[in-house]
């Protein structure tokens, strides 16, 4: 396992064409279906970064911005934003892609994943190389979210 990795090393993109089975009663992408895809993408990102099996520890900051409909092309892009000892925060942005390739954001989520060793105990993950001002801003935002998650746990919500 590498000691350090770049954010781009584990970036993952997943594409879906929406069919009626993906829709809710109002004819829009069912939130539960999108959540499943977000969890899959974040899992792939975390596995690529940690080079190990992972578990989902927390999903937060799930923001639905717009709907998606039958026939739409939905693109999910996941990237590591922060690492702890065994945990990784993954940002997943979801877009609807038009026929000309333009992407319109419809959702953003942050997921915390934990790397597991062969005994299914948390294991250390590679450090994250932060190179650009945008990556630094993501790292700092992740640290704020981490403090909020700890506070919510202590307060019981």
UniProtKB/TrEMBL annotation:
**HotDog ACOT-type domain residues:** 8-119
PROSITE patterns reported in the protein's UniProt record: HOTDOG_ACOT (PS51770)
Q: Name one GO molecular function term.
A: long-chain fatty acyl-CoA hydrolase activity
The question of whether DNA-binding is a record keyword is answered with no
Question: What are the UniProt keywords, alphabetically?
Answer: Hydrolase
Check the record and name the InterPro entries matching this protein: Cytosol_ACT, HOTDOG_ACOT, HotDog_dom_sf, Thioestr_dom
- One GO BP: acyl-CoA metabolic process
Q: Does the record's keyword annotation contain Hydrolase? A: yes
Q: Which domain of life is it from?
A: Bacteria
Q: One GO cellular component from the entry? A: cytosol
Q: Which SUPFAM superfamilies match?
A: Thioesterase/thiol ester dehydrase-isomerase
Pfam families xrefs: 4HBT
Regarding protein family, the annotation reads: Belongs to the acyl coenzyme A hydrolase family.
This chain belongs to the protein called Acyl-CoA thioesterase
Organism taxonomic ancestry: Bacteria, Bacillati, Bacillota, Clostridia, Lachnospirales
């Amino acid at each position: 396992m590498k000691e350090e990795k770049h954010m781009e090393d584990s970036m993952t993109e997943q594409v879906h064409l929406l069919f009626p089975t993906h829709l809710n009663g109002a004819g829009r992408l069912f939130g539960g279906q999108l959540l499943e895809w977000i969890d899959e993408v974040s899992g792939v990102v975390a596995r690529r970064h940690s080079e190990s099996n992972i578990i989902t520890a927390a999903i937060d900051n799930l923001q639905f911005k717009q709907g998606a409909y039958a026939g739409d092309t939905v693109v999910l892009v996941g990237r590591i934003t922060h690492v702890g000892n065994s945990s990784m925060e993954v940002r997943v942005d979801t877009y609807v892609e038009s026929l000309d390739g333009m992407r319109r954001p419809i959702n953003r989520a942050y997921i915390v994943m934990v790397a597991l060793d062969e005994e299914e105990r948390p294991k250390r993950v590679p450090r994250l190389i932060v190179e650009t001002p945008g990556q630094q801003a993501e790292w700092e935002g992740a640290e704020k979210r981490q403090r909020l998650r700890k506070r919510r746990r202590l307060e019981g919500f």
